[in-house]
Every structure is written in structure tokens, then in C-alpha cells.
Amino acid sequence: MGDNGMTATMIQSVTLDDANDTLVILDQTVLPNEKVFLKLKELKDIWDAIYHLKVRGAPAIGIAAGYGLYLGVKASVAATKEALAEDFKRVKEYLASSRPTAVNLFWALDRMEARFRREQGGSIAEIKEALRQEAEAIRAEDEQVCEQIGRHALSLLEPGWGILTHCNAGAIATAKYGTALAAIYLGEEQGYGFKVYADETRPLLQGARLTAWELQEAGIDVTLICDNMSSIVMKEGKIQAVLVGCDRVAANGDTANKIGTLAVAILAKHYGIPFYVCAPLSTVDLQCATGDDIHIELRPDEEITSKWYEKPMAPAGVNVYNPCFDVTDHEHITAIITQHGISYPPFADSLPAMFAKQASGT
Ligand code: MRU
């Protein structure tokens, strides 16, 4: 249990306080040492929270963007629908500039725009209310989606297995349960007794600060390792499956996820360990043909050289390359697990089939 009695699976990391025109987020940059909820009113502060990873993880970014767009439009003083549409466009474009790789950001903003367009027959107040409902629906649906992903993923796992995960694709990166960690939570409820190995995930340590924290709070057997130790735990036979989340899946199955994921996938293939990607369909981008079309975010140098250190850990002025994500080529991926089931290669066929299931409501 956490210091306020709530474990991570119970925490809602992104919520709306509509009465106070406020977005409430769990500040993921100060975990695990402090559990702080930020109350954000200004659009600039919401943009900053996304950019600085106070709210992070593809689904949570999408949820924050939906609420942010609603709050930005709610604050508009536009007296005509034309003027409101101008404000909508401005707020949407601003939020869309916060992070480039997680497609959930753009998916949520586009979904809000589709609702905005559908509601044009109503009054300005009715349009604003419809946007609130849409943002709430994005959050509520994510909870269900994550649980479904967890059930499908669990069907691939066996009791007592060692599971390696990278970055944090857990409860706090989503509305609830997580994507990659959902099966771990569900398995724990059913007595599977998984042993989870969490890569620390340099440079921002999402594995150490967030995954290790949320699993430990939930009483799950978790062992923290440095990123360069995943080969040894695989070689020692400690890992029977790898489960990761993702930020964007291209039509051919190439998958962008936190930097370091590609190395884990190559190692898993070398040792004959299944490598599973857990993804809501909101993370699958059929408009991207391959991973080469995915925009990889470059982050500030200081995240590598000094951010988490008392003193700099690199010579001043050294050249730094800090891609935030990498693309795991589809041939290294055993399966992509969505809320509508398990996609196996060839992904160019099986991913569209998942969208067809979604469209038919099955
Ligand atoms: O830069 P971050 O911390 O937002 O990166 C997050 C990841 O890479 C996650 O694995 C991904 O978004 C899936 S979260 C369910």
C-alpha cells in the first residue's frame, strides 16, 4: 500500500475536476519518492506536463490531451460557432505539438474534433458539454480496453513464469491496469505467482521509478535490473516471456516503444523467448506503413548527462544523441495483443482484422 493507502492500480493518474476547470494528474516525475497530484488550469501547464512526462505513457497522454482540449475550449469566450471553431483549432494544434511519437495523442485529439464537428447543430454550451462527455468517454473506455488486453495476454502466460518488461506500461500510464502490466495484475489475482523483471529504462528510469514502484505496491514479485542485464537474466533461464507496451504500431507491425525495446526484442529472439507487444487499437496507426514513417522524439541532452545525478555524469559539452523511442521491427515480435484479441504475423493482415472486429462490435 502507498502512503495514502492507494496502490497504483487504484490511482487514477489523469482525471478532470470539471467544477474547478482543472486537470488533475499524478506527477510521474517525482515518483517513487513523492505522490503529488498537480491541479492544472492553464493550457500551457497541461502542454508542459505532457512534454516533461509528468503525465506519460501513450494512453495517459491521449486522455490528458482529450481533457486538455475540452478545458481549452471551455475557457473560450467565443460568441459565435465560427469563432469557437477557430479556438478549437488553435488549442488542438498546440496540444498536438507536445510529443510526436505516441499516436494516442493525435488519436484523442482527432476523436475530440470528430465529436466537435458532429455537435455543430447545438448551442455553444451544448458543444462544450459534448466535448466534456467525449473526453470522459476516452478515459472510461481505456479502463475497459486495458482489462481486455490483460485477459488476452494472460491466456499466453503460465503460472510461475518470469516476465521481463521495459519502461512503464502500467496502471499509471493508462486509465487503469496498464497494457503490458494488466496481465500481471490479473494473473496475481488468480494466483499465477509471476516473477517480474523490470528494466530500469535509461535515461528517465521509468522502469525503476514507476514499474518497480507500482508492482511493489501491489505486492507483486518484482526485481529491478539495469538495462544491460536483460541478456544475463534471459541466459540464466529466468525469463519465459517479454511483455511491453508501445507508442505507435505501424501497419506492418513495426512498433515504436521506449528506447531500448529493440535490444530486448533482439535478445528475446536470440534466446527463443516470446516477445509480446500490448497495444490498444488507439496505438495502432495504419496510416504509417512501416516503422520508418514513425516520428521518433529526440529529447534534451541533459536527460542523459545530468538530470538524475547530483553532479554531471558526462563531460560538459559532449555530443549527446537522445532518441526517446526505438522501433522494433515486426519480425522480432511474436504477437501484438489488443483489446480485440491476439494478432500474429503477418501483421499487415491481422491488425486490420482487429479493426474489423472493433467496427463489428465483436
Ligand atoms: O516517454 P514515455 O515514458 O511516455 O514512454 C512510455 C512508453 O514507452 C510506454 O511503454 C508506452 O507509452 C506504453 S504505456 C501503456
Question: Would you kindly provide a written description of the structure presented here, covering whatever features stand out?
Answer:
The protein has helices at 43-51, 58-74, 81-96, 103-118, 124-154, 182-189, 206-217, 230-235, 261-270, 302-305, 347-360; strands spanning 14-17, 22-26, 37-40, 162-165, 195-199, 221-225, 241-244, 248-250, 255-258, 275-278, 284-285, 325-328, 335-338, 341-343. It is an alpha/beta fold. The strands form 3 sheets. Strands 6-5-4-7-10-13-14 form a 7-stranded mixed sheet, sandwiched between helices. Strands 11-8-9-12 form a 4-stranded mixed sheet, with helices on one face. The two termini are 37 Å apart. 5-S-methyl-1-O-phosphono-5-thio-D-ribulose (MRU) binds next to helix 2 and strand 9.
Brief synopsis:
The chain is α/β, with parallel strands linked by helices.
Strand elements, count: 14
Give the count of helical stretches: 11
- List the strand order in the largest sheet: 6-5-4-7-10-13-14
Determine the structural class based on helices, strands and strand pairing: alpha/beta
